[in-house]
Amino acid sequence: MASLKTISKLSARRQGRPAPELIFGDLWTYDPAPETADPKLKARYELFINGRFTAPKSGRYFNSINPANERKLAEIAVAGPADVEAAYRAAQKAFDTTWGKMPGAERAKYLFRIARLLQDRAREFAVAETMDGGKPIKESRDFDVPMAAAHFFYHAGWADKLDYVAPGRRIAPLGVVGQVIPWNFPLLMCAWKLAPALAMGNCVVLKPAETTSITALKLAEIIQDADLPPGVVNIVTGAGETGAAVMGHPIPAKVAFTGSTEVGKIIMRSLAGTDKKMTMELGGKAANIIFDDAPLDQAVEGIINGIFFNQGHVCCAGSRLLVHEPVADRVIAKLKQRMKVLRVGDPLDKNTDIGAINSKEQLARITALVKSGVKEGAGLFQPACTLPAKGWYFPPTIFTGVSMSHRIAREEIFGPVLSILTFRTPEEAVEKANNTAYGLSAGVWTDKGSRILKMSTELKAGVVWANTYNKFDPTSPFGGYKESGFGREGGRQGLLDYCRLL
Amino acid sequence: MSRLPITKTPKVYVGGAFIRSESARVFPIRDAAGDFFANIPQCTRKDLRNAVEAAAKAGPGWAKRTAYNRGQILYRLGEMLEARAAEMTAAITLGAPSPARARAAAREVAATIDRLIYYAGWADKYEQVLGNVNPVAAPYFNFTVTEPMGVIGVIAPDAAPLLGLVSLLAPAIVSGNTVVALASETQPYAAILLGEMLATSDLPGGVVNLLTGFRREVVPTFATHTHLRAISGVATADERKALKLGAAESVKRTHLLKAEAKTDWFADRAQSLEAIRDTLEFKTTWHPIGA
User: Does B141 touch chain A (CB under 8 A)?
Assistant: First the structure.
């Protein structure tokens, strides 16, 4: 009986293609498998202030574009200073009159409601998230939306157990907080920011990223359905200017920001001289370290997930691969094979592994950094793949022979681009991994438990994944060392960033 | 002509099924007006042994559920109880009670729902508060985690027959234990209805097993059954002595409240992390750190 590989070769010859190296992916083509659930989008999204959808005082709107096909999805309101002011006043009033006085057990029930309503509408939200941001539907469906609901669920349970957050001390909410979130996990970042703030008893003004405002405003619909008191959550949309207004307003006792290190530093400078608390979840350039005793097939899956998850638009992406020299050739060969079967294309297709790049600007930035990698002498590899004619896409890319001084080894690319370096000893791996201004995350792959613990002790990173990568959970604190920011999100530690000690 | 209603046959909820006592015995309960209401199964020590078997069978699967999932299921039970709060209130009062009695029962049901939500919230948190990493003076990663004990016996009080029962069983199951509970002897009907709500709350069969019957017949077997790893309950002085004597035979944990002390089940004190800890074991693991 002919093996699959033989059939595959015959099939390729018949179609006039070269004999394949792979049995899967060459033998047949995929039919489209589009997700067709209705995302229930509105033509126009207003600001969400004081429990109501409100037109912006300026009357200005901008278009939200589907990065997969460059078509307009909806109009989003631009919040000006007067709108931000109204949002903060509503938040302050809610804190003073309802939310700040409510017993924790009652706040908990509101958060449980939000979690449940989000679970109810999970598929609708997943489709909206994928259309707005470009991420593969399998990721928004299986990761972003359920994880967002899980964050509300987890923090709901804390609202009446705050005595356990800071043992030996009494704690109180901060009051009103301002939050600005990025475009890579739009709904999930909403949940990460809102859930702990609300559980602790704070009221919020939140600004989603300009390119991905829709799921935040759909969450506002859920917040209405949950009958949350008006003003507890206010959502203002717009670009950098709106963000600056949210961060710079005098009312919030704390601002929380997730985004680039560059913008994080601007915010820190602008708030110097005030007493505002801050948390910053910024960029990363994580090392994913593969030792020679690692289970290599699993490690290759981990490398793929580490860098190509969400098109590499992940602050903790394993964007620097450090491979132990004895296995470097084997790992790179396996990695290239694996990359050939990655499916790049329509984010709404259930088979898609890599979707659309979030924006034209981001695509330009990735392209420029990849050019610099080639120019500085690293070896580029991209599997053959056909990208859709419309929309913003970038093929999965790896660079071999990268040195620590290359831009692609130092700067955050925030795209599906992996830089591969090698090492000979664990000490060298630690040295190279820590030789960066960032310190958000790291990966270690080895069969040896004692080595995992030694590496995790020495790596200067807020999260260390051992024999896995890109794992998240509401119970697990996330956040960075050094220029990757400060403060943690999730777990008991995350709540501490939203309270004051009495 | 008015229609004659169908009366419900009360059955106990054991191993995910609704059963009568193996003894085929019942005892009657009366409604608020003093009229016959229904016959309640008079469970025996053999029923108890069967229930422990069902609980032991359900244990490993329940303990393996994620903490998040156990939390959601307890929350779901809260949802079920809230949706049928009026029915449960009537199950406590039985018939047309005085307004004060009706208000008290409604308050008990509301407090029971809140208690379930309280423990649902602990499901993925108690480990973060009770567990530790221990800074031992050697290159070892040393950490202490909790594990559920196994099958827990619960003996419910007569006062607050629903709230007392739920306050005792919720902290046990939240961590992955399974429970065999004896309902209030004088007011068992709320437990019968609770079983019906448990059955529709995504809780796997056998995680909670509810028996009705006479304390003097069943409590001695709670004391001596070696597969029960702990007893949480309310007991008289004589019962406490018997339970502790029996517990000594298999080094069983006992967490007994005094029946004569009149526990206030509505108080904040009646719900606590410590109640969860009462049915947990602690496990410490040492692992070397080194290249």
Answer: yes
